[in-house]
Amino acid sequence: MRRTIFTAEHEQFRDTARTFYLRECAPNTEQWERDGQVGRAAWAAAGKAGLIGWQFPEEYGGQGIWDFRYNAIMAEEMAATSSVGIGLGLQNDVIPPYLTHLTTPEQKARWLPGVTSGETICALALSEPAAGSDLKGIRTTARRDGDEWVIDGSKTFITNGILADLVIVACKTDPDAGHKGISLIVVERGAEGFERGRKLDKVGMKAQDTAELFFHDVRVPAENLIGQEGRGFYHMMGNLPTERLAIAVSSLAAAERAYELALEYAKTRTAFGQPIGQFQANRFALADIKAKLGVARVYVDGCIMALFQGELTSEEAAAAKYWTSETGWEVIDRCMQLFGGYGYVNEYEIARIWRDSRVQRVFGGTSEIMQEIIGRSLGL
Predict the structure, then answer these.
(1) CA nearest neighbour of 290 among 260, 265, 266, 322
(2) Which of 60, 146, 205, 271 is at a distance of 20 to 30 A from 47, taking alpha carbons?
(3) Pick from 97, 120, 143: which residue ends a domain?
C-alpha cells in the first residue's frame, strides 16, 4: 500500500540517510563483521551528515525535532541498503529522551555536542547476568560518598559496550527500596575501575559490538546522576514504548528486505525449466508474505504516527514489537527457504538477515513479556 505518513522533508532526509549508508556503511559490512565492531569514522560521518541527535536543542548541535518518522527512515534505509552494525538506533531511538528530558543544562552542555557530532558514542547499561527483562532485579549498586557516587556491579548484553564513551548505568542507590531504589548514573570513558569485558560472540549482528561491563569501586561525580534519585525505574519504563516501536520498525524493515531478495530470486532462479516463482507452492508463499507485510506496515505506520502525536500506549508498542518480531522471523525464515542451499551460505545477504533477526524476539523485552503486557490490558 502507498504510505502516507511522510512529507517532502522526510523524503529529503531519506535521501541523505540512503547516501550515508551506501557510502559509509554498505562497503564496510564484511570488514565490520570480521572485526566485530564498526569503525569510529562512520560515526563521525553520520554526525557530519546530521544523522545523529536531531532531537537535541539547536544550541547543542541538534535541531529540536521530535518526530519518530525520522527514526523510522534511518532503520528502513539501513535495511534497504544492506548496511549493518552501526548502533545509530540506540543513539537516536533510545538515548535522546534520557539525555534531553533527564539532564541539567550543565550536563547537556557537557555531553550533547559530542553525541550529536558522532564523537561521543553512548550505551545504556541495564541488563545484568541475573536481570534481563526483570529490571527490578538488578544488583549493581551506587553509594554516595561525599561529592561522588561509588558504583559496583556488572552489566551484560550492552550494545556499543566496547565503543561507548558515555554509559548510562542503572544502579541500586537504595538496595532496600526495591524498584523505588533504582537511579541512573552516567559513567564516562576513562573512569577508574570501569572495565570492558569480552566482546560477546553472538549468533547474529556480528558487526554491532555487544559487551560485558564491570564496575569496581568506580567513582563518578555526584552531578552525573540524571533524572531523580530513586526514580530510575520509572524513567526507564517511560522510554520503553519508544524502544519497542523502534525494534518493530527494524523487524519489519528486515522482513521487507528479505521479501525483496526472495522475490527477485524467485524470478531469476530456474528449476525444471522454469523460474521457481512459477511453482504454485512458492507463488502462494510469496503471496502470503506480501499480505502479512502489508498488514504489518499499516499497523506500524499507525504506531509511528501515534508516537508522534503523543498517543502511543505501552500495549500498542508491545503489540507492534511482538507481531513484527514474530511475523518477521517467520517471513525471513520462509524467504531463506526459497534460496535452498544457497540461503545457508553466509555470503548471501539472506543468511545474514536470518541470523541478525532472531534476536528481535528477545531484546527490548521477550515476546513472552510483550504478551504479558498486552494481556494485562484485557481486563481479565
Answers:
(1) 260
(2) 205
(3) 120
Please check whether residue 3 lies inside any domain of the structure: no
Q: Give kind and range of the element (H or E) at residue 176.
A: none
Cell numbers linked to 169: 548505568
Q: Is residue 23 part of a domain?
A: yes
Give the pLDDT confidence score for residue 133 in this predicted structure: 74
Q: Which residues are catalytically annotated?
A: 243
pLDDT at 1: 72
Distance CA 272, CA 294 (A): 31
The domain in which residue 13 lies consists of 8-120
Q: Mark whether 226 and 255 lie in a shared domain.
A: no
- Weakly modelled stretches of the chain, pLDDT under 70: none
* Residue 154 confidence (pLDDT): 97
- Is 83 strand, coil or helix? coil
Alpha helices for the chain (secondary structure H): 8-20, 29-35, 40-48, 68-80, 88-89, 95-101, 105-117, 232-268, 280-308, 314-338, 349-357, 367-376
Boundary residue ending a domain (74, 102, 120): 120
- Average per-residue pLDDT for the chain: 96
Q: What kind and span of H or E run contains 181?
A: none
- Of 93, 219, 231, 220, the closest CA to residue 159 belongs to 93
Instruction: Name the domain count of the chain.
Output: 3
Residues 39, 64: one domain?
Answer: yes
What pLDDT is stored for residue 300 in this prediction?
98
247 and 336 co-located in one domain = yes
129: in domain = yes
Cα 290 versus chain centre, distance = 25
Give domain status of residue 147, yes or no.
yes
> What tens digit of pLDDT does each residue of 68-85 get?
999 999 999 999 999 988
Q: Do 45 and 26 fall within a single domain?
A: yes
Each residue's pLDDT tens digit, 103-127? 999 999 999 999 999 999 999 999 9
C-alpha 260/C-alpha 374 separation (Å) is 31
> Which of 378, 375, 367, 358 shows the shortest CA–CA distance to 322?
367
Query: What CATH number did the domain enclosing 343 receive?
Result: 1.20.140.10
